[in-house]
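Email to the structure team, subject: Bifunctional protein FolD 1, mitochondrial isoform X2 model.

Hi all, the expression group asked for a predicted structure before they design truncation constructs. Nothing fancy, just the tokens so they can compare against earlier work. One-line instruction: predict Bifunctional protein FolD 1, mitochondrial isoform X2, return tokens.
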Amino acid sequence: MQGVMAWRLMRRKAFSTISKAFKSFSGYPTTRSPSLLELDLPDNWTPNPTTATTTAIPHFQNHASRQTAALIDGRLMAEEIRSGIASEIKRMRDATGKVPGLAVILVGNRKDSQTYVRNKIKACEEVGITSLMAELPDKCGEDEVLDAVLSFNENPSVHGILVQLPLPQHLDEEKILNAVSLEKDVDGFHPINMGNLAMRGREPLFVPCTPRGCIELLLRSGVQIMGKKAVVIGRSNIVGLPTSLLLQRHHATVTVIHAFTKNAEQITQEADIVVSAVGVPNLVRGFWLKPGAVVIDVGTSPVEDPGSEYGYRLTGDVCYEEAVKVVSAITPVPGGVGPMTIAMLLCNTVDSAKRAFGFS
Ligand SMILES: Nc1nc2c(c(=O)[nH]1)N[C@@H](CN(C=O)c1ccc(C(=O)N[C@@H](CCC(=O)O)C(=O)O)cc1)CN2
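Reply from the structure team: attached below.
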């Protein structure tokens, strides 16, 4: 009996020592393993040298006659959606005397971000959404950005707030995005919106624009998602992660591929639906794809092209010229996911205003 008591005492002591060790390592008052959450390693993509593009991929137009895949026209779909939104806003104005408002925060002078923000504001004007903008210099302090967010949070004529990403390195993205009011988080990047998207039976107030656009592209093209094998390449907070969650919500069996995935090609070869969002031009080659698969290409990378007007052209993650000969449908770059991202931002802003006005 004494032996058992001594053993129990010893075990309790050992357990308490281990707990304390974990507590001091992780700072959490629990007994969780210090490695449970693992390191947040960056996804630096190094295409497989044996399969990567070694020779230039011929330009699409030279091979247009051999194209077999249907083109999923994001520009056209976005136009239809914007026209529906314009009518909806007219109906809202007639009934309430009010219209939705979107506030945009742009920090720094990245040319691509400036273009996206300009396009977002132009799209707002065209459908009847009022837009406000806070433009801050590259070297601005975190407090200035937070002040802009907080003042938009309190402004009743603002129904949507977006902080254009990426932010300059010295700013704490997490802190800034967390400050956006949950009810105005039209980008859907607030952790509570993202958490609710991840959990079964929960409804996020907003779904991030690009992932929502990807699903709309599939649904409006008549692609069945339920029961299909989907591969999402990339696991960013903006696109890869929420897209994988949305596809799961649509009852696909989802595999996420990232820079540490072994046999990415073989895994992708089994997918009925492939969404690629890594920003590596032509990473996904024709032989990665299953015949008849549907491809949504989110990647938009500028690639040198002396023959084009600006000396570069936008290129997707998927080698289009090869893919069109294999898959059943594919989004082009440009003209696929990009225009849908902006259309979905307008949808989220209108949804937010409807909630605020109690208008349906
Ligand atoms: N706060 C956010 N930041 C960023 C987001 C976002 O959704 N919210 N997404 C991207 C950039 N982005 C929107 O902000 C975006 C990217 C591309 C397009 C687009 O229409 N692309 C066109 C081509 C445009 C061109 O010619 O330059 C296309 O693909 O046809 C729209 C929006 C990162 N940051």
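Residues 103 and 132 are 5 Å apart (CA to CA). The pocket of LMY7XDAE is lined by residues 115-116, 162-165, 187, 209-210, 238, 300, 314, 333-335, 338-339, 341-342 (CB under 6 Å). Ping us if the truncation boundaries need rechecking.
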